[in-house]
């Protein structure tokens, strides 16, 4: 079967279809805040949507599933600094004020920074980040509505490691999403085989046939899935076709091991799958893993004897179903590694 071409630029999905670089599951964390008296700031990065249970009062008032500061009685703002689990280029953010109706901030702004500007290796404390003058505004002070998801497109092209959410002047935010593309430090690629498709290594879903139940970005998350909901699942097909996903790899590379993990997919795992690759957007697709039967709730690993470079991979599942993780282990080609290092040294992302 000939693979379907990627969607044209005009029909590409909104930035919210890109991975959330701040997710706790990726290693994101809030490293500093000036106030979270009413509701803990770490709630901002929780994976599930915010919940609300009426009349659940604690010592500090109504319990909110979000970040809420005290009422300001003097001029100023409230802020939270988020370490991105996967540093990278930010394409947009979502400030979600779900369930905050009379206590949401009227305005917010967002800034970003690369911690390497403060200290070599980027190992800096939250207090050092808060005191830095190197913050770049990526969302100007903007009005937000209560009890809704407020999306803001970001046009910056730099690589960032942290973002700072500012509420003007105070209030509550349920969730903070930072959508973009992971850009790792390429020096870590020199030390053996690694997962070329992982979000944290620069892998990115470029096209997908179906994401009815859950996002294909879940396929590229770190670690093992803990539930079926942490994988990619399609709706049931009623035609003769099959579902598929395309992934851009960390760089031009050679794959030596494929992992197809159907963990937690018991009655809805695909019956079989193929993996193909191509070198360049206009390259011809070639076989990496022939059509292979899959078992439910199983981690499948296949050694690949293929000395052929590729920049993109395509996973086809037959006919539909769910997959927990998709791994492609290998190494970058020498020219790809050199290019990434040159880009890094020039400050390009």
UniProtKB/TrEMBL annotation:
One Pfam family cited in the UniProt record for this chain: Allantoicase
InterPro entries hit by this protein: Allantoicase (IPR005164), Allantoicase_dom (IPR015908), Galactose-bd-like_sf (IPR008979)
One of the GO BP terms on file: purine nucleobase metabolic process
Top-rank lineage group of the source organism: Bacteria
Reactions listed under catalytic activity: allantoate + H2O = (S)-ureidoglycolate + urea
Keyword presence, Hydrolase: yes
Pathway entry: Nitrogen metabolism; (S)-allantoin degradation; (S)-ureidoglycolate from allantoate (aminidohydrolase route): step 1/1
Keywords linked to the UniProt accession: Hydrolase, Purine metabolism
Enzyme category, top tier: hydrolase
GO MF assignments: allantoicase activity
Its EC number(s): 3.5.3.4
Allantoicase domain span: 27-181, 202-332
Family, per entry: Belongs to the allantoicase family.
Protein name: Probable allantoicase
Organism: Gordonia amarae NBRC 15530
Gene name per UniProt: alc
């Amino acid at each position: 079967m000939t693979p379907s071409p990627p969607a044209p630029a005009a029909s590409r999905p909104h930035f919210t279809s890109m991975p959330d670089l701040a997710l706790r599951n990726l290693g994101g964390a809030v490293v500093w805040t000036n106030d979270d008296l009413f509701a803990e700031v770490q709630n901002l990065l929780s994976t599930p949507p915010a919940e609300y249970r009426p009349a659940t009062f604690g010592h500090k008032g109504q319990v909110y599933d979000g970040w809420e500061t005290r009422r300001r009685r003097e001029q100023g703002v409230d802020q939270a600094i988020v370490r991105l689990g996967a540093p990278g280029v930010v394409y947009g953010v979502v400030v979600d004020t779900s369930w905050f109706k009379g206590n949401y901030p009227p305005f917010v702004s967002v800034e970003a920074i690369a911690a390497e500007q403060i200290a070599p290796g980027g190992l800096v404390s939250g207090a050092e980040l808060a005191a830095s003058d190197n913050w770049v505004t990526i969302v100007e002070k903007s009005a937000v509505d209560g009890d809704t998801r407020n999306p803001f497109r970001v046009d910056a092209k730099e690589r960032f490691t942290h973002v700072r959410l500012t509420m003007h002047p105070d209030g509550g935010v349920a969730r903070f999403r930072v959508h973009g593309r992971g850009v790792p430090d390429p020096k870590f690629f020199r030390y053996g085989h690694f997962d070329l498709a992982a979000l944290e290594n620069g892998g990115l879903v470029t096209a997908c046939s179906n994401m009815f139940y859950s996002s294909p970005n879940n396929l590229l998350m770190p670690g093992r899935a803990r539930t079926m909901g942490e994988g990619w699942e399609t709706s049931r097909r009623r035609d003769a076709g099959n579902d598929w996903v395309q992934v851009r790899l960390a760089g031009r590379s050679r794959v030596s091991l494929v992992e197809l993990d159907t963990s937690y997919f018991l009655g809805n795992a695909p019956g079989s799958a193929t993996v193909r690759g191509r070198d360049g957007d206009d390259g011809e697709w070639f076989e990496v893993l022939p059509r292979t039967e899959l078992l439910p709730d199983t981690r499948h690993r296949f050694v690949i004897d293929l000395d052929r470079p590729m920049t993109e991979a395509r996973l086809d599942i037959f006919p539909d179903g769910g997959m927990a993780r998709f791994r492609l282990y290998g190494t970058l080609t020498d020219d790809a590694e050199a290019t990434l290092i040159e880009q890094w040294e020039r400050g390009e992302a």
